[in-house]
Specification:
89 residues; 3 helices; 0% strand
């Protein structure tokens, strides 16, 4: 037997305004259900492909990012230890 709180929560309308729109039709036939599920699966595959593409582009941009470093101190004091090997001015 359910408690009154559980029953109230089960019948409480959702705060999501799209929940009602996303519910399958009450009079949906098994064939219509199969078509709807295939379309949803295709939409999910496309969405995941787009997400993967965006992630790859973001990763590529991050790799190409130029980092500039400003070294503060007296100019030409001591050896040039800050220049990487093979660096020419």
């Amino acid at each position: 037997m359910r408690s009154a709180v559980t029953m109230a929560a089960a019948h409480r309308p959702s705060d999501d305004p799209f929940e009602e729109l996303l519910q399958p039709p009450a009079d949906e036939t098994p064939e219509e259900r199969d078509v709807r599920l295939e379309r949803e699966a295709e939409a999910t595959r496309i969405s995941q492909a787009i997400d993967a593409s965006i992630k790859a582009e973001k990763h590529a941009r991050k790799k190409k990012r130029i980092v500039r470093l400003l070294l503060l101190g007296q100019s030409e004091s001591g050896e040039r230890l800050s220049d990487p090997p093979g660096f020419t001015r």
